[in-house]
Write a structure and sequence with these properties.
Elements: H1 15-28, E1 31-35, E2 41-45, H2 48-56, E3 60-61, H3 63-66, H4 80-83, H5 93-101, H6 107-131, E4 134-136, H7 137-142, H8 144-154, H9 161-170, H10 179-202, H11 208-214, E5 216-217, E6 220-221, H12 224-238, H13 240-254, H14 257-265, H15 267-281, E7 299-301, E8 305-307, E9 310-312, E10 317-320, H16 322-325, H17 360-377, E11 382-383, E12 388-389, E13 398-400, E14 402-404
Parallel strand pairs: 2-10
Antiparallel strand pairs: 1-2, 3-7, 4-14, 5-6, 7-10, 8-9, 11-14, 12-13
Helix pairs in contact: 6-8, 6-17, 8-12, 9-10, 10-11, 10-12, 13-15, 13-17, 14-15, 15-17
Length: 405
């Protein structure tokens, strides 16, 4: 056993080395105790089946974070609006809120949005073509596509979309804006959504805010105070993360031409498995250095519990590193390989169980439409330079993805 087995988190290393380190750690132990940069200790879960135990066990709760309880380990600060959503609620409140919100994410609504998303993608590609034979794919395609989709979903009028986008991006800013500017932009977005919800209550449209405003189960309804944070969550998670996924997918395919060839041979048959493999393999497939230590939002153990032989005590925090769980060889054959035809791919990128991402079907649909439209139009797409990353935003996704065709 090498000395590196005991080291977690590990620094940024090439993807092949990252997979090697992950699998050494997984073979050695199900989890590691880690001190977070912001302070406080947390158990980081490495193994896939231990991660599923956390996601399925009601002993693990998030309510203490939302209630700002003093005894919990405060190793990260969450935006106030996020702590007001069902993502930080526990049953029975979580069950009620999720059930009501799910009314806006039916298969019928997502299928209807697919048709509109395809039209948006084709329009963006037409505009790219009209400008020449090269583009910054992020600015010209990957970002505007989910922005337009989330705007359509929420019912944001065309005339308001520029300021809507500016407000939304500011909620993710980590630099380049003062704290006062970020708070001001957030407040303006909040007030705008409040006015839009009121308008939809008075005159419902065929959009998600109208569905949420009208959502009811027995005698319960979603209040404006509940809808507003949910809308903020959908905005923050709904456009920037999806743009990052699209960019990652394109870069992964261009840097793995054998896999791109598999997709091009039968786009309709392979685009679905391609999306799932991008979600599983993520940045490991784009050739950028990978570091250990990132994870999903944490939980607190509400009582002592044993996970894969390790006891987590009441009051201790746990988080799941999906980069580890998604490369667990006990779950994924040849886990370090990027394979767009992989059939069994139950990754944890969108979490699982009670906290499975409610917007996952929408994100999957947008990725499928983006990749199929892009590579049908430009089967000879190539990189025209190195990508650049937006470190001034919380998600740190690409801001430049230069391509030519």
């Amino acid at each position: 056993m090498t000395e590196s087995v005991a080291v977690y988190p590990f620094p940024a290393v090439p993807p092949d080395r990252a997979v090697e380190l992950i699998q050494q750690v997984i073979a050695d132990r199900p989890m590691s105790k880690m001190t977070m940069p912001f302070g406080g200790d947390v158990w980081v879960i490495h193994r896939y089946h231990a991660a599923k135990q956390v996601l399925e066990n009601p002993v693990f709760v998030r309510g203490p974070f939302a209630r700002n309880e003093r005894e919990i380990p405060y190793f990260v600060q969450f935006p106030d609006f996020l702590k007001q959503t069902f993502q930080f609620a526990d049953p029975p409140d979580h069950t009620r809120l999720r059930k009501l919100v799910a009314k806006g994410f039916t298969a019928r609504r997502v299928n209807k949005l697919r048709e509109g998303t395809l039209l948006i993608a084709e329009d963006l590609l037409d505009k790219m073509t009209a400008k020449g034979a090269s583009a910054n794919l992020h600015e010209d395609f990957s970002l505007p596509l989910p922005i337009q989709v989330i705007s359509e979903l929420l019912g944001v009028p065309l005339s308001d979309r520029d300021k809507f986008v500016a407000w939304s991006k500011s909620t993710l800013a980590t630099s380049g804006m003062t704290e006062e500017e970020v708070l001001q932009a957030g407040a303006e977005l909040y007030m705008y959504l409040a006015e839009l919800i009121a308008a939809r209550r008075a005159e419902p449209h065929d959009d998600l805010l109208s569905v949420l405003a009208a959502a009811e189960d027995a005698d319960e309804t979603l209040t404006d105070a509940e809808i507003l944070p949910i809308a903020m969550l959908l905005i923050v998670g709904g456009f920037d993360n999806t743009a990052n996924f699209i960019n990652t997918a394109v870069l992964a395919l261009l840097r793995n031409p054998d896999q791109l060839k598999q997709l091009l041979a039968d786009i309709d048959a392979v685009v679905g498995t391609t999306v799932e493999e991008v979600l599983r393999h993520g940045t490991f497939a784009v050739g950028q250095p990978v570091a250990g230590g990132n994870g999903l939002p944490p939980w607190i153990a509400s009582e002592d519990v044993e996970l894969d032989g390790q006891v987590v005590k009441k009051g201790e925090a746990v988080l799941i590193d999906p980069g580890c769980a998604n490369h667990d060889p006990a779950m994924f054959a040849d886990a370090g390989t990027f394979d767009v035809t992989r059939k069994s791919n139950l990754h944890l990128t969108f979490s699982h169980g009670l906290h499975h991402c409610i917007g996952a079907p929408l994100a999957r649909m947008e990725m499928q439409v983006a990749l199929s439209s892009l590579f049908r139009r430009f089967p000879a797409l190539q990189l025209a330079g190195e990508p650049e990353y937006a470190t001034e935003y919380l998600t740190a996704g690409m801001k430049l993805l230069p391509v030519t065709w």
